[in-house]
Every structure is written in structure tokens, then in C-alpha cells.
């Protein structure tokens, strides 16, 4: 009978190897519950089972090496290989049973029993491969059964903890995984060494030694090599898990950023309407007195359309910077969208609110310098108080908005407190008209009429295209009804380009029909004349319809031409380069100076109807007209008189040398189909 002694260092190594390998197997198992690796679940499951089986197998054979067996012992290679596959297969099925999202108690127990039996089966199969010349092995059955129960019990506890750990987040303390691996590893160790204590080596005589005894040194080398591979796998899986955790942390951070972005305006970085709807009702529930200051920039759309969205965005950012200079810490500044802002403050005293409103408006009203342009802008502000002017967020916003429109009606660049007596009907009508105009632009409810120009002898010499609104209820509506509001809101840009498109389309048709109604003139507002894409759009639409550029004339008012004389000269020259004709409209209503006309490359001068209306009864008016016509003619300009309504006016203008006459005497503006034959 052999008395077995153990090498303590190797025993400790076997324990460490068992725990570390179990830890690695559990790490691999965790990959099955991460979204990116669910498609590879089968391969991960097999890998986890193979590693756990290796943990059991390595621990067993390192533990065997720790024993002091007599010289000449060896391990049968067949039993050695079989023992590993028993452990690996049992471990794989055990992990599979416990890899579902919901693990029932019966499933957990079956998996634990299967793993416990796999550990025991591997141990005792491996023992069958142990050959010591001159000895045979016998077992104490009670200790054997006890060792199997230790393996099953340890597997049960470790699976229970593992199932609990699986439903926690990746940020859970690592000690849970370490604890689970330690329990499972120690159950393998406990089963092994208890199983070894059940062994009794009995001396037998006359045993024939096998002719091929396994080389002991080769076996030890194999164990060391496998240990090295396990360490390499541990490092790889640990790095992989670390990468996954980093990705999870990054994803969590990204989710937080997205949640923040949902309640933040991306341009100004201010809280947005989503933030308002989420948080302000809580403040109202608390019952604290607060004030809503609804701020809207005056003519911002005009700036946006004239200079482009990039300049408009920079302007918004600079406006926010200026407003921040006058805000206090207890104020919340919200970007509602576009050019609308909301300031919420606990300041509710009327005198202090007036001071605050004036400071904000003054800060906004200074000049802004963006992209080599000087931009001036103002704002209108409406103020509503809680709870005096509303009991909920919606009421307060509506009433602050009403007050803001009242400030606009006062001339803009001002503030107004909500007053129930405010003429809300007028505000509602204006808002309704604006909505209808937006729909008219979107649905193309406009149509062009044409007013002819004639020589004093009655020969048609051109047309002026004039816009009309084909209102769904009111019918044909003249520009006096809507032109001011589309200029103030910036819709004039879109409408102006529509007019340009339709006029060129009509010119193309008349060119094909060889109808000489040319030139056809269109009016440009100050905003459109200064629009950065004007020349590109003009060139594009002329090329699109393939028309002769000289058949198109651009009319610009005298005031617009003189507003930025250098820019006007530059634009006129570029229009001339395209071949387009140019007319100065409403001459006599602005600067009325010939000193600038000599510098402007224009073709036609249109005298405002104010000089025509009483020319037949006002001799001084006739003298002024004579001077204008004479000087314009000497400058090489064609002179057109607007607003001519009777034959006497025609006779006087013909006598003074006016080349063209336009007015109701000859024709009102009419659709293209009603024009007279040229």
C-alpha cells in the first residue's frame, strides 16, 4: 500500500489554474449575452465548454503531478484524451442549459448535476489511465459518492450566482464573477482531492510491465504547454471583454449625449422646446411666480434670405451671446426654434421686468459684423406673468405670443405686457393672412398679369409683369393686400424668383409664337436685388428656357438702387454682361438726382405717377417733367411715364418728348391671353 504525499506548490498551482480557467470560461459565457455576439452564440458556447472542460482536466493532471507516486508510473493516452472530452462535453451541455435569458430552477439543477457528473467522470476516467507498475487501485465508495456530491453542490452554487450575475449590467462589481469562478474552481479542486483520498493503492506481485511506458517528462511538458495556451487565451478573452466594456461605456455616454441633444438646440446650444415641455410644467406645479418673456427677432427671415443661412446662423449665435451678457443666474433661456426665444425668470416686478426687457432689446439692436457685412436687427418682446396671465404652459405661451405681436404692431424693437384688452382679432387676422400666404407660396396660388407700355403714337413697346394672388375664396387679389407682409417676412424672395421663372417661361412661348411683346420687365424688391444668388438664378433661368436675355428687363426702384450705390453699380454691370436690360422705377420718389444716373449702367427711367397725376393743371409740374425727360434723354435713357390715365396727359408727355407711356389710359394689367396683338 502506498502512502501519497503532495507537493504543496503544485497543489496551489492546481487551485489557481482551476479558478483562473473557470473565470475565463465564465467570461466567454458572458459574451453570449452581449448584442454584437449573439449571432456567434453556438461557437461561444462550444468555446466556453472547451475551456471549462480544460479547467477541470488541467486541475486534475496538475494535481496528479503533485502526488508522490513510485517511479515508473505513467498515464494511458487513451484514457487521458477520453477524460478531457467527458469534461468538455459535460461542461458544454451544462453551459447550454444555463445560457438562456430566463433560467428555471429545474434547468439550473439539471445543468449543475450534469457538470458535477462531468467533473467526477473526468476525474475517475483519468484515474483509470493511471498505471503504477506493481499496484492496483481500489476506492472507498462512501468517499467517492461524497466527492461527486461536492462537485454537484459546487456547480449548483456557481450556476446560481452566475445566473444572478448575468442579469446585472456590465458595470456590476467584478467580484461577483470572481466569486462564482472561485466557487466552481474550488468545487473541482475539492472533488479531486477528496476523490484522491478515496484511492487505495494495493501491492500486487508478478505484474508484467507494459512494453510502452509513457515518458513522464513528455507528459509534464505537455501539461506546461497547455497551461501556456490557457494563459494566452485568458489574456485574449480579458482584452476582448475590456474592449466590449469600453464600447458599452462609450455607448452609454453616447446615449446620454443623445438624450441631452434631444433637449438642446444644436446651433445655439440652448435648451429647446422639448426641454420646455419636459421641465417647465414642474415649475408651474410648484406654484412659484414667474415671468415668460417671448422674444422674436424682427425681419430675421429677410436677413436669412438676403445673405444666406450660414450668415443667419452666425447672427443667431451672436444674438444669444449678447443676451447672455444681461441674464442673471436664476433665469432660463430657451431657443424655441428659428428666430424665437423664451426667457423664464423669477423676476416678476413690473419695474424690474421693464428694465430687463429694455436692456435685452438694446443689446440686440447694435450692429453685427458677419462675413464682411454690417447687419442691423431688432427684436420684439411679449411678456406674460404666472399665474396672472395663465394657469398652464400652453396659456402662458399663447399670451406671451399675443403680447409679442402687439409689440410688433407698435413699430417693433419694443416690448409689451399681455393685456386681455389687446385687439387679438387683428393679431389673429394677421396670423391667418401669413398662414394663407405661406400656403399660397407652397401651392403656387399666384398668377402674372401684364400691363403694356406704348409709344405716344399707340405702338406697343413692351410689358411689365405684375403679380396677383389667386385667392381660393376672394378671387384675384392685388399686391396692395399682401405685398407688405411678404416683404416683412422674407417671403418676397421665394415669390420674386417664382415671378422670374414664370416671366421667362412666358417669354419663351412668345418667342416661339413670334409675338413681339418685348422687353418684358419684372420688379425686384430691395431684398431680392441684394440677394447673393440673384445673378446665378437669373443666368440659370435664362439658360433653362433658352430665351434672348435682351427680351427681359429688370426694374429696381430708385430708393433700392441708391441704398448701396457701389453694390448697385456692380450688380447692374453684371446684369448688363448677361444681356439683361435695366430700368430705374418710381423715379422722383427718392433721391431724384441725375448725378448718380450718369454712373448707373441703366437703359430706362420710369417717372413716378406722382409727377403725372395733375400735370395738365399744374404748369410747374410740367416744367419739372420737361427737365427730367430732357436730361434723361441726353443721358441716352428711354423715358417711361407711369400712371397715365387720360388723353390730355398723353398729349403733354408727347410734346415733352416722353418715349413710352404706361397706364390705364391704354390698358390695365391683364392676363397674357387678353393682351392685344402687337
Automatic annotation (TrEMBL):
Coiled coil: 237-264
CDD domains per UniProt: EAL (cd01948), GGDEF (cd01949)
GGDEF domain location: 288-420
Source organism superkingdom: Bacteria
The keyword Lipoprotein is assigned to this record: no
Transmembrane annotation, as ranges: 6-31, 43-62, 74-96, 108-130, 142-163, 175-196, 216-240
Keywords: Coiled coil, Membrane, Transmembrane, Transmembrane helix
InterPro entries documented for this protein: Biofilm_reg_signaling, EAL_dom, EAL_sf, GGDEF_dom, MHYT_dom, Nucleotide_cyclase, Rev_trsase/Diguanyl_cyclase
SMART domains tied to this protein: EAL, GGDEF
Domain MHYT: 6-202
Domain EAL: 430-678
An annotated GO cellular component: membrane
Name of this protein: Diguanylate cyclase
